[in-house]
Amino acid sequence: MRRYGKHTDEDDIRTRPGRRNTRPRTNIRPKHEDAAEGLVLTVDRGRLTCLVEDRVVMAMKARELGRKAAVVGDRVALVGDLSGRKDTLARIVRIEERTSVLRRTADDDDPYERVVVANADQLAVVTALADPEPRPRLIDRCLVAAYAGGLDPLLVLTKSDLAPPDKLLELYGHLDIPYVVTNREELQNGTAVARVREQLDGKITAFVGHSGVGKTTLVNALVPKEQRRTTGHVNAVTGRGRHTTTSALALPLGGSDGWVIDTPGLRSFGLHHVDPAQVIHAFPDLEPGTEGCPRACSHDEPDCALDAWVAEGHADPARLYSLRRLLATRERKEGD
User: Fold this and answer.
1) Which of 32, 85, 118, 123 could make a disulfide contact with 146, Cβ separation 3.0–4.6 Å?
2) What angle, rounded to 10 degrees, do the helices at 191-200 and 215-222 form?
């Protein structure tokens, strides 16, 4: 039996379109001018938790963004269900221009860079003075990433009840980096938290540090309502703690317009993505001296004009030493 009868050439016969007969496509994307502004608080397996006004909204990235990914700290534009109710999902249609970016690679030979945090004002490098022992080369790498990404560095030294901070502070004294020294007793009675808060108020601060240094414990003390599971123990053999923060998380600093971003504990901090020319910008007293440098100067070679600039008294020789130590850190292993 024929489905369409004997007149098979009628116009209303349904035909299946071929692969090339799909609907017209265009490269013009909607502007979403009515989209709401939001802040990315955390990212988990393709789902992004965002703050929209005073509501926490779950969202996913729109396909039209392609491979561009949003990270914690990003300011984004959202459409769809913005109620924040359970089982609702909004859509991120635009990622606004970033003011700063903290990037890292797995190691110095890895060309794939990972954006850790966006739009942070400063980077708090947390390191213990003992148990585990400080790793200055890892600190140097974090400082280089901060300078290259447009973040102001801050040193937070923990466990001063186990070892004095003098030796480590002397190593970074000529970099003019603000610092806070804490110990367990001061964390418990709140005096250390108050000193750290003075450096955080009104700013977005990303916290980094290798496992076991007390980073998440400090974040919990700063943001008590958002308790995070702290490090359970430090391995006596390796000196490393267990990872307790598995993804970056932005937390509001109560009583202030500041934000704290807790990041996963570091094992390494690759700098494959960093152009050494960016690091000199963190040394405004040395930067004018580079005008006489040969093209593509690494600032650590015989023809570097900085040697003569410093010898003429324009800058402190210790500052040049600090610059070259940071520039050379890409060639060293983190555990050195």
Assistant:
1) 123
2) 80
Q: What is the largest CA-CA distance in the chain?
A: 102
- Residue in the structure block whose two tokens are 């494959």: 272
Residue pair 289/306 in contact by the 8 Å Cβ criterion: yes
pLDDT bin (cut points 50, 70, 90) of residue 107 is low
**How many whole angstroms separate alpha carbon 35 and alpha carbon 19?**
34
Q: Is 146 left (phi over 0), alpha (psi -120 to 50) or beta?
A: alpha
pLDDT average, residue stretch 293-299: 87
Residue 33: what pLDDT?
79
- The set of residues, in sequence order, having a beta carbon less than 8 Å from that of 59 and lying 6+ positions away, is 38, 47, 48, 49, 50, 76, 78, 80, 89, 90, 91, 92
Half-sphere exposure at residue 270, Cβ-oriented, CA atoms within 13 angstroms: 14
Running DSSP on this structure, what letter comes out for residue 54? Answer: T
pTM of the full predicted structure? 0.78
Give the pair of three-digit tokens for residue 36: 């709401």
Tokens of 244: 């307790």
Token output for 199: 């450096």
Nearest to 41 by CA among 26, 30, 52, 25: 52
Could you tell me which of 242, 269, 259, 217 has the C-alpha nearest to residue 72?
259
